[in-house]
Write a structure and sequence with these properties.
Blueprint: H1 3-27, E1 37-43, E2 46-50, E3 65-68, E4 71-78, E5 85-87, E6 93-96, E7 101-105, E8 111-113, E9 120-122, E10 136-138, E11 141-145, E12 151-153, E13 158-166, H2 176-181, E14 189-197, E15 202-203, E16 227-228, E17 284-288, E18 293-298, E19 301-308, E20 310-313, E21 320-321, E22 326-328, E23 336-340, E24 370-371, E25 377-379, E26 381-383, H3 389-422
Parallel strand pairs: 23-24
Antiparallel strand pairs: 1-4, 2-3, 5-26, 6-11, 6-25, 7-10, 7-13, 7-20, 8-9, 10-22, 11-12, 13-14, 13-19, 15-16, 17-18, 18-19, 20-23, 21-22
Helix pairs in contact: 1-3
Amino acid sequence: MTGAMYAAIGGLKSHMTKLNVIGNNVANVNTHGYKAQRMTFQESIYTTSKSGSNGGVTMGGNNPSQIGYGCSVGSIDLNMSPSTYAPTGVGLDCMLTGEGFFMVGDKIEYERDETTNPPTITGHGIQSASDLTEPLLTRVGNFWVDADGYICNRDNKVLYGFARVQNPNYNPNAKPDEIKADPSIAEPTIISTELVPLRIPLSAAAPNKDNGGLDANGEALWEEGDPVYPYLSGSKENRYPSYKDKATNAGGGTVTYPLTGTQIAVAQNTNENRISDEMPVQLKSMQIGTDGSVIGTCNGKTVVIGYVAIASADSPDGVTHMDGSYYKAMGGAGNLRVASLVDLPTKYLGNQETPKADTDPQPKAADAILSDSTNSIKNGGLEASSTDVANEFAEMITTQRGYQANTRIITVTDSMLEELVNMKR
């Protein structure tokens, strides 16, 4: 007889857990990027009082007789489907219209080596899928620009993406036949496929003879305040954002940048011949475009500093909820891949080239950058909460009634046990 009481206790616990889930959903009805949870019940163990039989030659069969012991929590699921658009009017606020996540995290630490000439900076961003566990995933695109020029969210986490850098193969004196064979050499800058915190480029100093800003005819090669993009070397030890200094060697000659036939504008701070990481360019009217481009206006020209990277999990509903609006691709989410909303120069992380021959190094399949043509970005707004208040209120009523029914079972069971005890009187 007491089995009914234990079953009812299990029901009370399960219904209270569901009420906690409902309460959390309702509490986050106005939380941007919140994904509503759903709890399901499952039956508990059964005891078999009589087993079933298929019957024989002379006798028919019978069904098994079993009694259950209540219910328990079956699952608590996340529904990661895109929600509705909530306009905010802020230029860098953005929302993903499809599945996927923004990648945010800490700034990458670099070490400056003053013993080399010119000085170098060691450190690199995310170059392979094995490092994708470091950044956090989020659906909330409330970004802004901090004092150091980094694109951050309101929790001081920097936004990861594919940055624009100097083209190491740029040749301003290339002939038409050379450009036809390799069009990339005609572009002063390229988009790197190494995942790095997106940062506004530096501001160029006024061109003069000392910093190489004047050509042979005395004409300026750039305008003061033009964006200065970082240099990307070919080695892992010296990658973005390795800002190179223009220095003078012991003989008094100028040390040139390790580029072929190029002249890079320098940014002014305490030394007009030095690139500084303390003076970002002044960009106006910044916003994130539908293709994930982070753009602004400088000296009347549109500047694209890079593209937002979109993280894609094999099972988006299986990500693990961390503190706040952040997730991580842990057990249940499968592999985490990186996608772009635009076509990039190379198709693999870390600027790995597509093999042209069987003898070329073969990039890992997990390092391939997906082309997310089904997704886009809406700017000037954030993703609203996916909580359906009407549905939550209906679930609240049924949960309350279920809880009341289970308490009634306990009351009735207790009354019957009391009658049993009173039989001896």
